[in-house]
Design goal:
The chain has nine helices and 18 strands. By secondary structure, the protein is an alpha+beta fold. The chain has two domains: 37-69 and 109-269 and 370-416, Antithrombin, subunit I, domain 2 (Antithrombin, Chain I, domain 2, 2-Layer Sandwich), CATH 3.30.497.10; 276-367 and 423-468, Roll (Alpha-1-antitrypsin, domain 1), CATH 2.30.39.10. The strands form two sheets. Strands 1, 2, 4, 5, 6, 7, 13, 14 and 15 form a nine-stranded mixed β-sheet that branches. Strands 3, 8, 9, 10, 11, 12, 16, 17 and 18 form a nine-stranded mixed β-sheet that branches. Helix 1 (81-120) packs across helix 4. It is globular. The protein starts with 36 loop residues before the first strand and ends in a 5-residue tail after the last strand.
Length: 473
């Protein structure tokens, strides 16, 4: 079979309903001489509650584990107070262990996030860029379960871990730390691996993906109309069908033998919402020229004001406990200056940032709805993850011995929208921070009227980061 390059870009998703499930397709014989794999990292955020899930007809190889996050024991549910105390102690121990593993993951990922922001957030003129650091991390980490040798080691090195056992613990802890699914406050990561019919696979590796990475594994005729529908159904089921009206279809090449999808579904309201009656029209100074934008305003907000070597920043709390950071380069500085400096990450990911002051802030934030799609593979190669993308060098031998397999791309699609009520779609940014002079006044105007960065964090975990050059794009 002659090798052809695999379609690696996520295109658009059909809005047709998925037909009722039939019997799993029988595995057909196929000779795998050599092939490529499409790795597609899809980050999307929605504002709609999940509807009834569409049926998926592909054969299920492994099911994603149910969230391993027990509820805190309620004394009202116990007749024996001592039994309740014992269960509370067990719950506290599990909670502490998860936090320790998640904190260790963030320490190892500091440079990955800083380097990733530098690779993926640099923009040209009026272009917006966004990505999800945590989703790229989990999607790429899944590849360690499918690879061996130097291919796996490069990924482990990028994440600062020694072996797959440590990575499994950290990924599970991060996933569970982020997980929220209640009413209008949602933050859920989901993963899936799709295999070509007839490809022999390592069931132990598939089960590890299901348990440690909360991933579902399916097998079907990749590139067929039905499997394309199945993939669309899986994405819609895990994103509240947020993309249903804005996308049309997804098409994989019939030569695809593996595809990886990862989603992040997020919605949250501001703890202190903006009032629409206070909105104003004003100028936004894009790199390519001025434009008009609609600004949301708050006067005399009591909040922390942060500053660094070449930026200032504030953050707004969301009702789900997350925060959205707004980072404004100093006059004469650019977002690239902030990204290249890199110290802003210390402000975001540590509790030791000293340059802040609780004060009154007149805040003006442009309403925006921004999106971007990009292939992360070249940036990941620059960060040392090369083997997994190299023909014949990629060692996907823990997945299958059928044929040489390598990744031909790592496409990430992200959309972020904010309005007076909250974050209705969210995505990426990371920040540099360093010491400089404190603010001169007790009341300060913080007006995002020129290119700025944003980051949405859960505790010290960066969920989304972005660079906004054009709020009306």
């Amino acid at each position: 079979m002659r090798h052809e390059n695999i379609l690696t870009a996520l295109e658009e998703i059909s809005d047709k309903h998925i037909e009722e499930a039939e019997n799993p397709p029988k595995k057909r014989k196929r000779t795998f001489l050599k092939a490529a794999v499409a790795a597609v990292l899809v980050i999307v955020v929605g504002i709609n509650l999940l509807n009834a899930p569409s049926m998926i007809m592909a054969y299920t190889v492994a099911e994603a584990s149910e969230p391993r996050i027990p509820e805190h024991p309620d004394l009202d549910d116990y007749e024996d107070r001592e039994e309740w105390r014992a269960d509370v102690d067990a719950w506290d121990a599990q909670y502490e262990a998860r936090n320790v593993n998640a904190d260790q993951a963030m320490l190892g990922l500091h440079s990955f996030f800083v380097d990733g922001n530098s690779q993926f957030l640099h923009t040209e003129q009026s272009e917006n860029k966004i990505w999800s650091p945590i989703n790229a991390y989990i999607g790429l980490a899944m590849a360690t379960e499918l690879t061996e040798g130097e291919t796996r080691q490069q990924i482990l090195d990028a994440f600062g871990v020694e072996d797959t056992d440590e990575l499994r613990k950290q990924v599970s802890a991060v996933w569970e730390s982020v997980y929220q699914d209640r009413s209008n406050e949602i933050c859920v990561l989901a993963n899936s691996l799709w295999l070509e019919s007839g490809l022999e696979y390592n069931q132990e590796a598939m089960d590890a993906l299901g348990y440690h990475y909360y991933a579902s594994v399916y097998q079907g005729d990749l590139g067929s109309k039905q499997t394309n529908k199945d993939i669309a159904a899986w994405i819609n089921n895990n994103t509240g069908k947020f993309l249903k009206d804005s996308t049309k279809n997804i098409q994989l090449s019939p030569e695809t033998v593996m595809a990886l999808y990862s989603t992040l579904y997020f919605q949250a309201k501001w703890s202190d919402e903006f009032s629409e009656k206070n909105n104003t029209d004003g100028v936004f100074h894009m790199p390519s020229g001025d434009m008009q934008a609609e600004y949301m305003n708050k006067e005399l907000c009591h909040m922390n004001y942060y500053w660094g070597e070449n930026f200032s920043a504030v953050n707004m709390w969301l009702k789900n406990g997350c925060r959205m950071w707004f980072i404004l380069p100093d006059e004469g500085m650019t977002t690239e200056d902030v990204l290249n400096n890199g110290t802003y990450m210390d402000m975001l990911l540590s509790n030791e940032w000293e340059n802040y002051k609780y004060m009154k802030v007149n805040l003006s934030v442009p309403k925006f709805d921004v999106a971007s799609t990009m292939d992360l593979s070249e940036g990941l190669k620059s960060m040392g993850v090369t083997k997994v993308f190299t023909e014949y060098d990629a060692e996907f031998t823990n997945l299958t011995s059928d044929s040489p397999i390598w990744l031909t791309g790592a496409n990430q699609s992200v959309r972020v929208q904010i309005d007076e009520e909250g974050v209705k779609a969210a995505t990426y940014i990371e920040f540099p921070g360093a010491g400089a002079a404190p603010p001169p006044e007790e009341i300060i105007d913080f007006v995002l009227d020129r290119p700025f960065l944003f980051v949405i964090t859960n505790e010290n975990i960066p969920l989304f980061a972005g660079c906004v050059n054009n709020p009306e794009e």
